[in-house]
Structure formats: C-alpha cells, structure tokens
C-alpha cells in the first residue's frame, strides 16, 4: 500500500487543486453554506482514519445533555439504509451505522441520534420533530461545507498530526492543511498521558494557531472493566482471550493490553469491517472475545456470541478541561 501511495504522488497536486478550489468557492460565497440560528457544533478532522471523533462526541453529549435537548447527526457510514434515519428501539448498526448506534446504545432517549449523508436535510428533519433539539452535534462533517457550523472542533492525532501530512492519495489529508483555519478549536488526540511541556510547545509551534483558535491536548483512558450485554469482568482477571478490532488504528489498545501483561491473540480487521458468516463461525469457537465498543455494536447482533463477547470502553481526558468547557458554553450561548 505504501508503494502504491508513493507511485500516485503525481496525482497529489490535482487532488490538492480540486479540494482547494472547492473551499475557495465556499469561502467566497460562490457555493452557498447554510447557517442556523441555534447551536450547531461540528467535530471532524482533516485526515481519513480514526482521530477520536466518537469519544469527543460522547464527551460533548455528557457535557450538554442535562441542560439541553441534544441531537447527534452522522452520515451513518456503511449502513444499509438511505436518507434520513432517526434511531429508535429497532435501530441496529446495519440501519444507522456502528458509531451512531453506539451513541444510541449508550445514551438512549436522552439524545436524538440521527443519520443523513445530506446534513442540511438531516438538520431540517431534526428541527421538525415535536421535541426538537436545541443543539445539534455534527459528527465527521468538517468537509461538509454545505452546512456552516457555528463552532468547529478539529481533531488531529499526536502520532500523525495534519501538519506533517500530505493530501490524498499519497497522504491521508482529505483537503489541504489550510482547511484547519476553519476550526475554532484544535484538539491533539491520543497523546501520551504525561506529555512534556516542551513537546506541547513544539506541537503548538507547528500548528501555528490563529488568534481566534484554541489548542488542547487529550489522551485516552481505558476502563478497568469489560462489559457484555448483561455482565462485566475485571480486566486484570482475563486470561487467553481473543482481541477483535475493526478500527483505524488498534496499536494503542494493543499496547495498553500488553502493559497489563495480558495474554491474547489479535484479529485485526479494517476500519468499519463488516464481519462475514465465516468470521462469525470462527469467533464462535473462541472462549472469550474482547473488542472495542464500536466493533461490539456490529457483533452484538450475532446471538451465538452471547456470553463470550465483551467490549472495553474508553473515555478522553482533556488538559485545561475547564477552559474547554467554557468555550463550549460560550459557543452554545452565542
């Protein structure tokens, strides 16, 4: 794959030009963006792959749901339905996508969870609900310029920051680095727990934030327990299990489990992997399966895995959390 990306390097200028021109058209008003008189917060990234959007959306839900009626709006990647879909008791990962289903599974009726590849249409349908949301959180919509969010949170990983990357197909950027200027907040995600001040300053110098932008650093915290449909287990008590991952980068999770001196075999699949009947037959033979919360949303529908399928939750910890919350409160008010 790396060789193919290097071979395709001559394509990079064309991709750069197309995406740059598209952004210029929106910036100049040639292409129209819809603005709204209520809070619309966008969480996204410049790159393909996992930067921690789902934990950030969950963080915002927890922060806002007690004071406001909150809705999440996602594309519903790899779902088997079309158009606008609102999560209800019949929702599955197949009907709304694994990440939105994770939101619904975790928060239930405390929030509206909707999917629509056309974010304008999704917002319109959400606002037509009888109990309409007061705040809408856009999941992975930084490049969806047809909607102008009132507040943009841009995520970039510590290991692969956008400022050291190229646009597709050689790199992972969906658009030029200049797109970061649309962000109100930049969060460097998946940082080591004890990131040195000197390293933070080095990253800040590379980001070169504008005067209106704020930069934060976050790290992942793994739970001490794994959970199934109706049971839980202490992580340190697990022996000889099978780790199943279908995420963009499983390395941090593997490193964490290794740090606990746990013994396991790792089945590593592509991001948003759709498990085949043959995969499920193989997993049935395993005595204990540990997976991510996102993968659990796709695997839990296979009843034959009940009793042996558990997921490991994660949360995020932000530096200067008080300042971050204050910015969100200001964004909601204005």
Automatic annotation (TrEMBL):
Transmembrane segments: none annotated. The gene is lpxK. NCBIfam families: lpxK. Transfers the gamma-phosphate of ATP to the 4'-position of a tetraacyldisaccharide 1-phosphate intermediate (termed DS-1-P) to form tetraacyldisaccharide 1,4'-bis-phosphate (lipid IVA). This is Tetraacyldisaccharide 4'-kinase. Belongs to the LpxK family. GO terms for molecular function: lipid-A 4'-kinase activity. Its EC number is 2.7.1.130. ATP binds at residues 47-54.
